[in-house]
Amino acid sequence: MKPENYKWSKRIDVLIYAILAGMMLYGLLRPLHYTLQMFIVVVSAVIASFLIWTGGRAINRSPEAKRAIAKIVLLDDDGERLKEWYVKGETSVLIGKSTPRGEVDIDLTDCEYASLVSSEHAVLNRVGDQWFIEDADSHSGTGIRKAGRSEAKQLVAEEPVEIGMGDLIFIANTRLLIK
Q1: Is the residue at 15 inside a domain?
Q2: Which of 23, 76, 94, 158 has the fewest CB atoms within 10 Å, i.e. the most exposed one?
């Protein structure tokens, strides 16, 4: 099902194309200076080509693209929420267990499978609007299951993998949902 504002974005696209076509016709039919006419035609053609090539994506971003990752949710074996950590505005988030030597951002010390979690297990890094996860050479490994998929993938230490809304991160046997 398409979002409610879909038909409005299509109407705006048609309006933009009509304005561009009008600019081209004005530039070709109106007796102006030749250089100004060609400038109007070329600029209109470049803008129209860009909009057609991108399919309007530069202007009409989907609602999913506008939603940024805001929190990480700890799930129990039944999929119930146990704990949440807000990451909106953060650039790097360390997952593991806090120790006297250092604290982590997402502390899994009191989780059911805490004995399998390394003190610095994995790290989430944000670059622009995109988030990436890396296994920090943990003992029991880090996995990820992309949203809408059934299979999980084991991460290779220190090789970043992009994550998004709805992905499930496995820290040892602990499950973290990306929201």
Answers
A1: yes
A2: 158
